[in-house]
Amino acid sequence: MKRALPVFWLVLLLTVPLWLRDQYLLHTLITTGIFTIAAMSLNLLLGYTGQLSLGHVAFFGIGAYASALTTLGFDVELFAGFRVVHQPWPAIVGFFVAIVVAGVSGYMIGRLSFKVRGAYFVIVTISFAEVTRLVALNWVELTQGPLALTNIPPFTLGFPGLGTYTLWNKVAYYYFVLAAGLGAYVVISRLVGSRIGRAMIALKNNESLASSVGIDVTRYLVLAAVVSAAVAGGAGSLYAHYLKIIDPDIFLFVYTVTMVIMVITGGKGTLAGPIVGGIIFGFLPVIVRDFAAPAMQWILYGALMIVIVFVLPQGVVPAVEHWVTNRARRKLAATILAGTAKPGDGR
Amino acid sequence: MDQFLQHLVNAVILGGTYALLGIGLTLIFGIMRVVNFAHGELYAFGAYTVYLVAAALGLDFFLGLAVAVIAGALLGALIEITLLRPLRTDDIDTVMLVMIGAWIVMQNTELMVWGGVAKAIVTPFPDTPLVIGPVSLSWLRVFVLLVALVLIVGSYLLIHRTKLGKAMRATFQDRDTAALMGVNIKGIYTATFAIGSGLAAAAGALLGPVFLVTPTMGDLASLKAFAIVILGGLGNITGATIGGFILALVEELGAGYVSSGYRDAMGFLIIIAVLLFKPTGLFARAERVG
Amino acid sequence: MQARVASGEVVLSIEHVAVHFGGLVALADLNFSVCDGEIVGLIGPNGAGKTTAFNVFTGFLKPTTGEVRYRGTSLNGLKPHEIADLGLVRTFQRTSIFHDHSVFDNVLTGLHRRGRSTLWDTLLALPREKVAERELVDHAHEILALVGLDRRAAEVAGALPYGEQRLLGIALALAARPSMLLLDEPVSGMNLSETAKVMKLIDSIRGSGVTILVVEHDMPMVMQVSDRIVVLNYGRIIAEGPPAAIQKNPDVIRAYLGEGKRRA
User: Fold this and answer.
1) Among B251, B249, B226, which Cα is nearest to B12's?
2) Helix A195-205 and helix A217-243: axis angle, to 10°?
3) Whole-prediction pTM value?
4) Domain locations in chain B?
5) Disulfide-capable partner of A192 in A59, A197, B275, C205 (CB 3.0 to 4.6 Å)?
6) CATH number of B2-124+140-277: 2.40.10, 2.40.128, 1.25.40, 1.10.3470?
7) Closest partner residue to A213 among C133, C136, C175, by Cβ?
8) What is the pLDDT, as a whole number, of residue C25?
9) Which one of B226, B265, B279 has the shortest CB-CB distance to A134?
């Protein structure tokens, strides 16, 4: 039963465009999907490696800008008359550039940030994100500042022998995001189930013990940051080419908060957690928008976050898992008491 | 040179209120180890309270200031009792998330009540500036500096000359031992949060009339407060005071001579530089157990 | 575990190690060595400096002066994981295990050093990743069987009784494939039967060629298990030798019982 569930969801997701005609809902699905991928990447750093990084939107935004700039081309003067000119490249290349650039920034920011821990780490990560935002806002020659990068072209996929296919409509984009989401899921699940993942989880649980059995603390923290940043950067690229316009507001702290809420509510440190959290907070605005202004919505989210921290501190997914396990246990206990239990029950 | 002096004077005035922000947070962060993201919201609350009393209700401006500080302290106590006490956990992450939730709720409540348009507060001070040589200051700003200095000295006296302050310092050094010595830790926590919030509200009440009052004014205030605390060292009031002036100076000079767009980045760059090169802050002394 | 024939040469050498905390002298000019295949017990009354010494030997504390060398390499300035890479692994007295992991996952995590897979092996799910993983799983079963915790493999480590948690801590250290094991009060808080289990375990670990240094308060245990005893008092070594000699050493007796009484 447990194995069948993800397959069922996957099949359902594959068929969505066939029965969902409402363009607005489809749009919401796409943006929810993109933010869920970002939430999954944050989960790797926050949930599995135990580092509360609140600067995650920096990687998302860096990926978005890297992809957009690769695709649109740019012409900047770095210093003393030294100009860098870049001709536009195909959008799909921008996607991979975004992943690499974001990963590299994850390495640099990670190496610097992990010199401190705890609350100071949190503050330093927020600072990096804010500095990135201010650079995007002020380095107008490169980023157009608040005027935004516009006319970002959609992805064009080339199939050798079959020609090219450009993702113009929402349905095509939906499948692309779904594929990217699956890719991100596979990467993260393989990582956390491996020896490398175990090292990261050990760092969350007991850093000095992990170190004493030979786990290089800095190396695995930075590795988690790099993979996490790379995936977030890919999500950022998806966002840029979907909206076709990117401005420095993408670096606003409120987006980090959105991702954090998704991870914490869904269940940090679980694979399904950020997905569940993503769906909840992706669609909550849709449900609520008819009778609550945006400010009111945010009050609801803030209150909901506080409530979740008090009532379900582990998040929705672990709470559901506990409930299911306990229900099975209570059922088993009932059958034992009634004398109807058979060998093999309880598996 | 004239420009430089003007920047210097501006920095001193701004630094006074920044110091209040910093002292408030260094007490909360230091004694309770709470990463208080809602600190900036108390700052905004202070500004909006003055607006409510002085502009909307048309009452006395100075009354507005007093109400802002007291209301800020009470709100802080309320937050501590309803959100932080029941948590019963030392897990920094959980506390941080609750404070982020509080921040979101407070800011959007302000947005809903007052709207997003910036509000101006009219003060009883004359508009013509006071000119001393090459430097000009408004009377309002002089008043702001004076009040800030009074509050800074007041905070110092509170911490170092009163029984409450002694209990707070003891809790900061070693909570468990302080508890064993009979200090009511729960009460100290509430008092600390209230005092810290009151100081933040005071900073907002003082700067609100100087600049404009907007719902998002608290965001940068929170982060700048963190920069000041990190500069000055955890729990260190003198350090926070000096840190506040340093931040204001760096901002003013940076905005004046480098680029005004990056003015707000100064605080963050300070945070990054200090944490990476001297994590205990510029003024940490041996006995300050961080 | 593969058995090794001990060579008898010096593996851990402590040279002129001193530790000063401000004005307080915790350790003063410590000099001794541990030979390959030996079991050395470090004892001393409370406050003698055993914990400080232990933390210096395991690289968790930098000595004010002096040096600790393991197989010729100085431990000065090395990070804990680099010291583990040299083959020197320690246990902890408190927080000795990963509380939220299962017993099996604890040991599997401890086997980290023995793994060879890289990031790309993992992401591309290459066959050699599966092979390496299976090897680690087999090793984990072996180690759990060795310490006698194989029946507890699926349980959450934090739920184990205290004695078994300490055993798990030793299993964790063994997983890191040490050539020398430093045990931090391995039987503190244990009852007689648990202590006996640990003593047997220590014996079999030495049998496979691992050198052992034990810091302990439990006299009968450490006397029985050690080849050689080193006694610390007020940060200095006051005696060194085989257990039988140490037990009769007047300086040692005086250190533990104080100056007041004279004993024949």
Assistant:
1) B249
2) 110
3) 0.86
4) 2-124+140-277
5) A197
6) 1.10.3470
7) C175
8) 86
9) B265
